[in-house]
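We modelled the chain as a single entity of 269 amino acids. Its sequence is:
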Amino acid sequence: MDVISCRRFTKEVAMKVIAKWKRACAWSLVAGLSVMQPATAAAADVTVLVNGSFNAYPPWMDDWSPEFSAIANTFGYPPIQFRWFDNEAVYPPFYGGIFNGAFALASFLNGIGGDNLNLIAHSHGGNVVKIASYYLSRPFRHLIHLGTPVNWDLYPLGGYAYSFCQVSSYTDYVQFGGSSPWQVGNFGYEQYLAARFFFDAGEAAFNGDWDLFAYYMAEGAYHEAQANYWWLSTKLEWYAANYMFGGESHGDLHEPPVWYAIRNQCALN
């Protein structure tokens, strides 16, 4: 049985929607971009790091960070830092900045060399990559998303990836908050119903009505399961190999312990 369902659409439909968005936002399509070129790089391989929302200069992407070193040691050369600037990162869901970053990323990736292209993106940087993939003329060798919100308002991967990993943490509330209002709202509604039925079950038990208690408990359990479905819908990527951690925070997902736990399956496969 599938854990979650996913709305499907054709690539042609998605391209039309993106084109409409691009025309409507033509005045603001110039995204800020800063790229650090590696000192040396294998001619047939290039790895690009992509930041998430709020901070275009996160410490984990700096070349002195342990995260940068762990990634460089894995691939055998230092990665390139691509930075997109989310000027609309004030109130969710930040879609304007994500699309602007995607157009800039696609232009950048189409212009760099190398036969094998690896992308490592944190948080909404993964959604930037997915939208950019509709404009790429090359596939991904390894695509790794760290804590990327699976947002049903945005688009799935439009290009091809030989290896696509989605790394999440069940307790990552930031990842959950970056999903669509529809997903967040349904989770909240199901949690409310579950709490209401569990409360009614407690009252029934207090009054000694065990048949009513059993009914309310069953209803509460059902709605709690539905809430869990919506929670997981923000974390499990339909088209990727999913790796779920238990207690890590949003920022933990780009740190070396997580990287070393998933690199054999996601970066060296």
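As a brief sanity check on the tokenised model: The first strand starts at residue 33 and ends at 36. DSSP finds eight helices and seven strands in the chain.
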